[in-house]
UniProtKB/TrEMBL annotation:
It is found in: Cell membrane; Membrane. Gene3D superfamilies: Rhodopsin 7-helix transmembrane proteins. InterPro entries: GPCR_Rhodpsn, GPCR_Rhodpsn_7TM, Olfact_rcpt, OR51/52/56-like. One of its GO terms (cellular component) is plasma membrane. It comes from the Eukaryota. Keywords: Cell membrane, G-protein coupled receptor, Membrane, Olfaction, Receptor, Sensory transduction, Transducer, Transmembrane, Transmembrane helix. This is Olfactory receptor. PROSITE patterns: G_PROTEIN_RECEP_F1_1, G_PROTEIN_RECEP_F1_2. Belongs to the G-protein coupled receptor 1 family. SUPFAM superfamilies: Family A G protein-coupled receptor-like (SSF81321). Residues 43-294 form the G-protein coupled receptors family 1 profile domain.
Length: 310
């Protein structure tokens, strides 16, 4: 594109988009989103409240769960304003700076959640494969430091993204295909050379989600190897049962994000409706379901929640 076009136009706003083909029922869809956000925020807040108030839950597994609840809360809060404004109020405009800020927090929280899931896998690995040293390895100060490292890693790799996007001229269409801002969508609207952003985006994906998922897989290979060496079938099931909640959280997080990454890079002919629905699943379902999964599988949490409700 010519240099003239590159300097003549830079939109002051981006336009967000709802679910394609369902514009007439956006108000009804907004009710679903409102319910999802209410249950996500209340569920994760209750988990945090219970863990904070009960000293018996101040142990590594529940500290990791509280970190997961914080990232899920943040992800809900980061996406809620624009999604509800599109579906509830039909307000589609978002300024460039607001868009860059939103995509920064969305990618930051996704990266942080991936790191927390890895930390939880490490917790399960030590608890099952080296139980005698569990208390000495996973002390609360050490878990806190690991959590801080997770956040710092996320900030370090995500912080350059908004600055890389700000240097572009957006002289093409300013219409995004989602009701929130993410890096992949925004950089496609630039009329400049986006190869650096594309390479950096791939680097981030491999370094964070790719590496974390690989390490989680390897940790479960070692866990399965240890469990299969247990002679008692009942003990084997009991040990595996302690991993069910984490495995569900891992699947809820990695399956949609992997599917969406594959579609963005390889599935150009796929249905826009399917892409949009999958994008909502990967952002909204984990914060909604993680409190349910952990509450159902943790007897301690279930008992405290019953007392809390009464």
């Amino acid at each position: 594109m010519s240099a003239v076009n590159d300097t003549n136009y830079n939109p002051a706003v981006f336009l967000l988009t709802g679910i394609p083909g369902l514009e007439d029922v956006h108000l009804w869809i907004s009710i679903v989103f409102c319910l999802v956000y209410v249950f996500s925020i209340v569920g994760n807040s209750v988990i945090l409240f219970i863990i904070k108030r009960d000293p018996s839950l101040h142990e590594p597994m529940y500290i990791c769960l509280s970190m997961l609840a914080v990232t899920d809360l943040g992800l809900s809060i980061a996406t809620m304003p624009t999604i509800l404004s599109v579906y509830l109020f039909n307000s589609r405009e978002i300024s460039l700076n607001a868009c860059f800020a939103q995509l920064f927090f969305i990618h930051l929280l996704i990266c942080s959640e991936s790191s927390v899931l890895l930390l939880m896998a490490f917790d399960r690995f030590i608890a099952i494969c080296n139980p005698l040293r569990y208390a000495s390895i996973l002390t609360l100060p050490r878990i806190s430091k690991m959590g801080l490292v997770c956040v710092l890693r996320a900030v370090a790799v995500i912080l350059p993204i908004p600055f890389l996007l700000q240097r572009f001229r957006y002289c093409q269409s300013n219409i995004l295909s989602h009701s929130y801002c993410i890096n992949q969508e925004v950089m496609k609207l630039a009329c400049s050379d986006i190869r650096v952003n594309s390479i950096y985006g791939l680097f981030i994906t491999v370094l964070t989600v790719g590496l974390d998922s690989l390490l989680i897989f390897l940790s479960y290979v070692m866990i399965l190897k240890t469990v299969l060496s247990i002679t008692s079938y009942a003990d084997c099931l009991r040990v595996l049962n302690t991993c069910v909640s984490h495995l569900c959280a891992v699947l809820l997080f990695y399956m949609p994000i992997t599917g969406l990454s594959v579609i963005h890079r390889l599935g150009e002919g796929s249905s826009p409706l399917f892409q949009t629905v999958l994008s909502y699943i990967y952002l909204l379902v984990p914060p909604l379901m993680n409190p349910v999964v952990y509450s159902v599988k943790s007897k301690h949490l279930r008992r405290i929640i019953r007392v809390f409700i009464k």
